Structures are given as C-alpha cells and as structure tokens.
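note to self: the first set is below, dont mix up w the second
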Amino acid sequence: MKYLPEGFGFSENQYTYTLANLEQARVQNKIIEARATMCDSSHNLIVDLGCMKGIVPRINACVGIKDGSVRDIAVLSRAGKICCFYVEGYEYRNGERFAVLNREKAMREALFYMTENLHPGDVIDAKITHIERFGAFADIGCGNVGLINIENCSVSRITHPSERFYCGQRIKAVIKDIDRSLCRFTLSHKELLGTWEDNVSGFSVGQTVSGVVRSVMDYGVFVELTPNLSGLAEIHTDDIVSSLPVPGSTATVYIKSIIPEKMKIKLNMIDFGESQPKEKISYRYFLPVSGHFDSFVYSPQSSDKKIITNF
C-alpha cells in the first residue's frame, strides 16, 4: 500500500537526515519519518532529525486537534515514538534552528487515499498501537487507526486481546468494514490465520502436543492448539492431580481423534502447568494470492456447520 503504518519496515539509522535530505523532502513534498523525543509544555512535538531538531506544532500533530474532535492525549502519547510528517520550512527559536513539520497533513492525505482506494476484504499491513478490553487498535497508515474487535482476533476465543497482540507488533489485517462518512475502519485478523483444515493439517491422531487452556467447563477443557484451532480435552484424574487447570495455563494433550465432519478434535489431558509466559507473538499467515478476500470459509466442506465471513 502507498501509506504504511508509522515506523513500519524501517531501521533506526534511516531516521537520521542531512540538511540536503530535509530540503529534498520539502521540495518533493515527500513524507518522511523520525522519532519524537518529547512533547513540550505547549504540546508541540520535538523530533530528532539528526542534523537538527524538528518541531510539529500542536495543531499539526494529529488529525482532529484543530477542530477539537481529538484530545491532546493523541499528541502527548507520540513522545518517544516514530512519527511521519511533511517538512514545511525552517524557523529559529531561542537562536536554534528548527525544521517545521506537519504530521496532520500526512495523516489526512493517507486517510483520504485509504477511504478512496481500500475495500472490505483487502489485506493490509498494520501495527498495534494500543489494546483495550474490547479490542486492539492498529495503525493502518501514517498514524490512522482501525479497530480489531476481540471476536475478530482469532477463531479460538480469548478473554483479552493481549492474549493475541502486544503494542508495537507488526501484523497483517483484513478490512472488515469502512464507514466512509466518518472515515472509520473496522479490521479483522482471524481470516488470515487459516481454515480449520489449514490448521488441523499440522496435527495427527496419536500425537502428544502442547496447547493453551482457554476455558474450563463441567464436561471438559478447551485447549487451543493454534489461534484458529481448539479441541476438547477429557480429564483423567488417575493420571494427573485432581485440581483443574486455569485459563491461560499450558496443557499437554494427547490427540485422540480428528473429526472433520463435526469440526472437532478430541483430546486427552496428560498434564497442565503454570500460566503461559508473556512472549512476543508471531503468526503464520494464510494469505490470498490476490491480497483480497471476497469471502472466507473456515469450516471443512464435509462439515454440516458452516462458518463463513463475507466481505
């Protein structure tokens, strides 16, 4: 895509510019990036450009600041992070030369491009910016964000989006919906993690594997083998202690049977341990060749139950 998330795909040394670099970007009207080192008392962003400091005036630091539709926390939270911007000129402050930068212009241009050119079903690059109980927000281009609701993080159910994502994580996402009147993007992630058959192909009956406990029911324990695949484990108290595992803990399970027509995996619980350590998560993606989904069919053809996402 033409406009990438801020800091996406760049190394730190690419954020050091010479005066000639800055002038070239200004003359060519080109978006560049660097790290904001601080937000001053007037809520202007101060940016380290290498050859000099840059300043992003508060009203040009984020879309929505000018009209008051966005609070200043959107500017304050950029301190210490990579920001994109246009170079508009230079000025002196207390005898020091600053490059005058405009992030709002870059954001607005990217937003216009995305609302005009992207469609539901398109697969895009994204970067997780912050996580709430109900979902994860992701930068989808020049600081503009979309929301991945918790139910769209994966097929396997989770209690909090932090079980799938961490801030700063680079991911793929698929556009679920675009509200063009409000310029709002709703995203999904689960369709990129593969169908039931894609995921179950990595397992076979008779294997003993590890997974993550997602829920504990009266009739058994649901264990996640992959983010888009869970099975139901029977508990044999003769083999393990009589206490039950807790959601989020690790589990060792024996694959008893795989039943495509019922979209089920039956497991035997062998052992369970402590909560899964918080590690940086990465994913295996199953991407459409065209970069676009018209629909996504999770369920096997032989299954009576159909799970389909139409875009």
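second set (the one i keep forgetting abt)
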Amino acid sequence: MRGMEAITKPALPACVINCVHYDKQGARHDITLDAISDVVANEDNGFVWVGLYEPSEEILEKLQEEFGLHDLAVEDARNAHQRPKLEAYGNSIFVVMHTAQVVHEKILFGETHAFVGPRYLITVRHGASLSYAPVRERVEREPELLVLGPAYGLYAVLDFIVDNYRPIIDEFRQTADSLEQAIFADTYRRQTVIRLYELKRELTQMRLAVAPLQDVLAQFTRTQSALLSEEVRLYFRDVHDHALRVNESIDTLREMLTTALTVNLSLVTLGQGEVLKRLGAWAALLAAPTLIASWYGMNFQHMPELNTRYGYWVLIAVVALACGLLYRLFKRAKWL
C-alpha cells in the first residue's frame, strides 16, 4: 500500500505540468500547490520545482502567494512577448528565454520564463516549446548535482534550450545545401528563391532569440548572487559557450544564404543576357535577307539585274554569303 502511495501523483490543474519537491539528498517528491508553502518554510528541506504551460491568472496568483513573487515579474510571465533578459528582484531572479521548434520546415518560437529563488524554481512555458520532462529526468539521475539547488535546475533548462537550437541549425543547413544545388540547375525555379528568402528570414528571427540570450548567460557567469555558487557558474559558462557557437553558426548560415541569393540573381541576369544575345544574333541573320528581299520587292521596272539570265541565282548566293558571314561572326563572338 505504501508503494502505491509513493507512485501516485497528486491532482494538479491542467496547466501545471509538474509540482515537485527535491529534498536535501536530491530525491523527488510530488506535492500539491497548497503544500508548497509548508515545504518552502523548512529551510533544510531542498527546493520546489513547478513546471507550468500557459498558466491561467488564478494559478499565477496562487504561486505568487506561495512564493512571494514580485508583481512585475508575474506581469511579465503573464504576457508572452518579452525579450530575453535577466532581472533581479531582491533575493530572487527572473529570466526570460526564447525557445524554437521546427514544424513543417518552419521555425516556430516560444518563450520560457523562470523564477529562481533560494528554495524554488518555477518554469513557465508559452507557445512553441518542447516539454522539460527530459530535463527533469536527466537531473533526477544526478541527485548529487540536484543538491546544488534550484540554480542547477535552471542551468539544465537553459542547456536544454540552447542544445535544441543545434539540430534546427543542422536541418536548415541541409536545406540550404539542397537549395544551392537547385540554384545551379539549368532551369530557373522561382520557388527556390522564395525558399531561400524564407530561410534567411527565419534565421534572422532565430538570431534575435539567441543573441540576447548570450548576454543573459554572460550575466550568470559574472554575477555574485548568492543563488549561484561558484560550482554552478561553471555550468552556466559551458552553456554560454554553446550559445556563442550556435550564434556563430546562424551568422555563417545567413551569410551563405545571402551569397546564394546574390549568385541566383547573377545567374538569372547572365541567363537573360545569353538569351538576348542569341535573339539579337538571329535577328541580325534574318535582317540581311530581309533587307535584300525588300530591295528587290519594290515595283521598279528599270532594274538591270532583272533582265540578266543569272540574276536570281546571284541574288541567292549574295544572301547566303551574307548570312554565312554573319553566322561565323556571331559564332566567334559566342553569341550563337
């Protein structure tokens, strides 16, 4: 019977994905929202991690009451249109991070807001965002690191978000490589240019999510807050390094796409020039016999050539010679 109680989770609102207490040994205990204040009141009792997805007003107000969250931080968490940032409110910090997912070859963006205090970690997800269940499973396999407190849980979330950028970049790089091959195809495809533009636009939006996150992570490595021990700051330094590499990859890929668009425009312009040269060459070839034929098409009676026996054949030879000379000229000029 006790075993059944150990695995039975308490009933939680739909927007509350998890409400977990990790004790001093890093062991997990599922609790209700009403039990949070009792757990937090015991200073020697680990910390609480609450995971939310697009929470309602009532849930945010309930957590604000349980943890004593700042009004401005709660207001930001309620509105999912914040820039990546790190703000301190007394002995707690509030962090905004942008998340990304690829759905039907397009990047969808979301936000994760995190409240971190001495005894708690609250993660609030909005929009396109993967579940943090794998993150919790990972940290629960390392109870010796969970004893570092809620800051280590925040590191695990940040590491998960940044690592999730990498497969997106790799997927878009493969798409860019295939589009580059399409650029050099013999036939022009308008859809190729459209897809190149869409890729560059989405990568620009992704850079707006990653670049500010570097500043947030840099603050974590420099801050002297009591919430982050020196050991935990080492982990944040590693995530910062990953974010730098992701941002560099985004910049490189954007430059490649810009170059691809420029090359595509150059090839289209070059192709149009080649077509115009060929049309001009054939027009010149047709102009020679047309000019001669129009000369003899006039209704004049006294033209000496009309009465000669071989005048017609001489005219044909002159036309053929003129066309042959023009053809050879244009062939040497590579217009034909």
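remember for set 2: The chain has two domains: 2-267, 276-332.
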